[in-house]
Specification:
Elements (H helix, E strand, L loop, with lengths): L1 H5 L10 H11 L1 H20 L12 H12 L3 H14 L2 H12 L6 H5 L8 H38 L4 E6 L2 E7 H21 L3 E2 L9 H6 L5 H11 L3 E2 L10 H29 L3 E3 L18 H23 L10 H6 L2 H20 L1 E3 L1 H9 L6 H10 L5 H9 L6 H9 L5 H8 L10 H7 L6
Helix pairs in contact: 2-3, 2-15, 3-4, 3-6, 3-8, 5-6, 8-9, 8-15, 9-12, 9-21, 12-13, 13-15, 17-18
Length: 460
C-alpha cells in the first residue's frame, strides 16, 4: 500500500493520506458513485409511496429490503462494476442506472420497477443532490469539527496567556503593549464569526428535470403536484430546495459555502504568520524533538514548519476556491458541461484546508511562551509610554501636548530616567505625576487581560 502512496501524483493521496483518507471516502470517485446510488434508490422508494403512481404500488417488504441492502452494502466491488459498465456507455450516470436494474432482478415485478429508476430525471438531478449530501457530510464531520478545535485552542491560549504582556508591533515597530492572550482572543472572535456564517449557509438541491420545469413529470402524471412532490423529496434528504433552476442547480450556495471557508482560511494564514513572527522574536519557543532535523546543514535549527506547511496548503485551497466561486455560478444558457469537471475537485479544496488545520493544531502544541524574553523586550522600549504621557498632558490642558512630546522624543532612545525627568517638569498635579511615575511597559495594558478572559463568553 505504501508503494501506491509513493507513486501518487498528488500529496493528498500520498504524503498526507493519513489526514485526508476520511475525506476521500466522501469525495473520491467511489464516494461520488455511492452518493448517486443513494439518491437514485431514495427517489425510487419515494415514488413508490405516491398513491397515484399505481404502477409502483407493488412494493412489498422484500422490495424495500433489497433496495436498502443496495445502499447499506454498497462497496468498492460494486463501484468497480459500475465503472466497467461506464466503459461501454461512456456515461457515468447511465452506468449507475444499468447497475441498479441488474441489482433489483431478485425483486418480483423487477422489470416494471426498473423502468422507474431515474424516472423523469436528468443526470444533474441526481448529481447535484449527491454533491449536496457530500458537502453536508464533509461540513458536519470534518470542517466544523476542525474549526471548533481551532477556536477552542484560541480560547485556551487567550486564557492561558491573558496576563503575559507583549510589546505590540504596529508596522513592525514597537507600539502600545498588549497581552498574548488578547491577541489570541482577536483571532478567536474572527473565527467565531465565520463559523456562525458557515452554519447559516443553506446547502441547496434541485430536482426538477431537464431544464427545471418538470416537463416530463407533468406529461407522465399531469394530475400530480410535482413541484410539491419534488420539494418534499429534496427536503427528505435534509437538503434545502432550490425552486428555480435550469438543468443544473446554479451552484451559488457552493460559491457561498467555499467563500466562507476562504475567509476562515485567510484569517488562519494571518494567525500562522503572526505565530511564525512571534517565534522569530522569541516570544514563543518551540518544544524540541531530539529525533527531528531542522536543517540538513545547520544542526542548531528548530523551524516553525507546521505553521509554514499550514500556510502553504491554505494558499492552494484558497486559490482553488477563488476559481470555483467565480466559475461555478456561470453556465451557458440552460446548461454547459464545464462545471462537471470542476465539481469533481471539491474534495481537493477541502483536503488542502484540512491538512492546513491539522498542521496549525500540531504547531500550537509545540510552542510555549518565553516570558523572560517578553519582559526583556518590554524593558528595552520605554518609549511606548509616551502615548499615555501625552494623553495626560492633553487632559490637563497643556497646549500642543502631542507636538511637544513628538519634537522631544521621536526617533530617540528613551529610558525610564529620561521619562521620569520629563514627567517631573510637567505642569500637572502630584497625583497625576505619581500615576505616570508608576507606569511601566509591563502594566500599561488597558483592558487586555479582561478582554482575553471574556472571549470564551462569545458563543458560536
Amino acid at each position: 500500500m505504501q508503494s501506491l502512496y509513493l507513486k501518487s501524483i498528488s500529496p493528498l493521496d500520498g504524503r498526507y493520506k493519513k489526514i485526508t483518507q476520511g475525506v476521500s471516502k466522501i469525495f473520491s470517485e467511489y464516494g461520488f458513485i455511492k452518493y448517486r446510488v443513494i439518491v437514485e434508490v431514495f427517489w425510487l422508494k419515494y415514488l413508490s409511496n405516491i398513491p397515484e403512481i399505481i404502477e409502483l404500488n407493488i412494493f412489498n417488504e422484500n422490495t424495500y429490503e433489497v433496495l436498502n441492502k443496495i445502499i447499506k452494502k454498497f462497496n468498492l466491488h460494486d463501484a468497480k462494476k459500475i465503472k466497467n459498465i461506464e466503459k461501454k456507455t461512456n456515461h457515468d450516470l447511465q452506468a449507475i442506472i444499468l447497475f441498479l436494474k441488474k441489482k433489483i432482478k431478485k425483486i418480483k415485478n423487477s422489470k416494471k420497477i426498473a423502468e422507474f429508476i431515474h424516472f423523469s430525471c436528468t443526470s444533474e438531478d441526481i448529481n447535484n443532490l449527491a454533491y449536496a449530501l457530500m458537502l453536508k457530510k464533509a461540513k458536519e464531520k470534518y470542517i466544523l469539527p476542525y474549526w471548533k478545535k481551532i477556536i477552542q485552542e484560541m480560547d485556551n491560549m487567550a486564557n492561558k496567556y491573558r496576563k503575559d504582556v507583549i510589546l505590540s508591533r504596529t508596522h513592525g515597530q514597537p507600539a502600545t503593549p498588549s497581552t498574548m492572550g488578547k491577541e489570541m482572543a482577536n483571532f478567536s472572535y474572527r473565527f467565531k464569526r465565520q463559523i456562525k456564517q458557515l452554519k447559516k449557509i443553506k446547502i441547496l438541491g434541485k430536482f426538477n428535470g431537464a431544464v427545471g420545469n418538470y416537463n416530463a413529470h407533468v406529461f407522465a402524471y399531469p394530475n400530480l403536484n410535482w413541484e410539491e412532490i419534488n420539494h418534499n423529496f429534496v427536503k427528505s434528504l435534509n437538503i434545502y430546495w432550490n425552486p428555480y433552476t435550469t438543468q443544473i442547480e446554479s451552484h451559488d450556495y457552493i460559491s457561498e459555502f467555499f467563500l466562507c471557508i476562504l475567509r476562515f482560511n485567510v484569517i488562519l494564514i494571518d494567525f500562522n504568520r503572526d505565530i511564525w513572527g512571534y517565534i522569530s522574536l522569541k516570544y514563543f519557543i518551540q518544544k524540541i524533538n531530539i529525533e527531528e532535523t531542522g536543517s540538513s546543514t545547520m544542526p542548531h535549527k528548530v523551524n516553525p514548519i507546521d505553521f509554514e506547511n499550514s500556510e502553504g496548503n491554505l494558499g492552494i485551497s484558497n486559490t482553488l476556491i477563488q476559481h470555483f466561486s467565480s466559475k461555478l455560478p456561470i453556465s451557458r444558457w440552460q446548461r454547459d458541461l464545464s462545471d462537471s469537471t470542476v465539481l469533481r475537485n471539491l474534495g481537493s479544496i477541502i483536503s488542502y484546508s484540512l491538512i492546513s488545520y491539522y498542521f496549525t493544531l500540531s504547531g500550537i502544541k509545540k510552542i510555549k511562551i518565553y516570558k523572560k524574553y517578553l519582559l526583556k523586550d518590554l524593558k528595552k522600549n520605554w518609549q511606548v509610554l509616551l502615548e499615555p504621557i501625552q494623553v495626560i498632558m492633553k487632559k490637563n490642558g497643556i497646549k500642543n501636548s502631542y507636538e511637544k512630546v513628538k519634537k522631544l522624543f521621536r526617533g530617540k532612545k528613551v529610558n525610564f530616567k529620561i521619562i521620569k525627568k520629563f514627567i517631573k517638569k510637567l505642569d500637572i498635579s502630584d497625583s497625576e505625576k505619581n500615576r505616570l511615575y508608576n507606569l511601566t511597559p509591563l502594566n500599561y495594558v488597558g483592558y487586555s487581560i479582561d478582554l482575553a478572559k471574556k472571549i470564551k463568553l462569545y458563543k458560536y
